[in-house]
From TrEMBL:
Belongs to the polysaccharide synthase family. It comes from the Bacteria. It is a multi-pass membrane protein. InterPro entries: Poly_Biosynth_Transport (IPR050833). Its main location: membrane. The chain crosses the membrane at residues 21-40, 46-66, 87-109, 121-145, 166-189, 209-234, 295-315, 335-356, 368-386. This is PST family polysaccharide export protein. The keyword Cell membrane applies. The keyword Membrane applies.
Amino acid sequence: MRSIRGASFSMRVGLGPSAPTWVLLQQVVVRGLVAVKFLALGRILGPSAIGSVSIALLAVAIAESLSDTGLPQAVIQGREAPTRSELSAVWTTLTARGTLVALVLIALAPVMNSQFHLGNALALLQLAAALPLIRGLASPAYFVVQRNRGFQHIAGIEMAAAFVDCCIGLAFALSGAGAYSLLIGMVVGDMLKSTLTWTTMKPRPPIRLAWTGIGHYIGFSRWIWAGSVVNLLLNQFDKVVVGKLLGPAQLGAYQMSSKLAQMLLTDAAFAMGQYLFPTFSAQHRHDARVAARRVKLYLAIVAAGLAMFVVLLRMTAEPLFALILGPAWMSAVPLFKIFVINMAIGALIAVLVAYLRAVGDAKATTHASLIQMVILVGIVPPATHYWGVTGIAWSITVGMGSAATWMLYRTLRRHDAPSYPLAS
């Protein structure tokens, strides 16, 4: 293993297994394939079908957030590498969680089908339940590879899964499978990814039921779980409201404007976060002051680039939608102009979250989410009353800006601060 003083923390472009080049390549390929699939299916299927799939995926997101164990992040952030026995306990926990989530989603599918006015989409909701089960079966060696910054290996698996997902989804859509095509592609892609984690990654944990040996992760992971629950309320609340009150077609337009803004702005930052989290974790273990200085440089670069991109996207929103999605989607343009601001803030938050979790201050990100939630509870009702769905979008802007400000404060004040213990 490379020494900490070696190329482990170098940001220069290279092709080594830990080089950030692989993170960039993964971002370009995976997000590019996701964009092709999502936009092509949007044009083929229309707002109503996309809205129906969005509700199915919304159910998965809610269930996964409520049951988030925080174990992957704890394995990456921990001072000591996990043993094979500990990995077996991690796998048992995550598999049990995935199975439970899948069963709950199947049981609740008829209720959701009725509440969101989906018509004959019961099987669509039940198919989505396969996703958390497949993800839970993956090998926890994936988290060890992330911890060791094996970005080349991770990029290969993620790109292969995304390619299969895109091809299968488009093939089924063109053959007339409708809204099911998007979920079928995701299921097959996740199956490939989970299989590759077992066949190509080490150390492979023993496949046995083990429930003990990972108690030392709880102090850190509890804040990850708390953050997931709060973020669930923040990230899915607006979609639930739109889907429940306005139906699948309006939710489809809302989701498309949000998704397009996310693909153009936030996804790159989240990909960078995949590199920064294990890198900051390792750097912080070696020299906390260097990590604190480095995050400020990243934030300055990201903020400058985002500001210019937001201005460009708002100016070209209408021709962009007309070219990519067609006239059926033009009603989503005003929302898109708001969402590009939201997603730019979200990109900054992704960098801040990677650093704060890496230094063991996961509770700071949870506190930021709580601040955002309190603000939304206060301003969403009047904003919705006066401006409808546009008011919801602007309310999210205010809430995200407040959360980012808090995390930035916590980040900047750590310049001379001592390290947080794992259980902080």
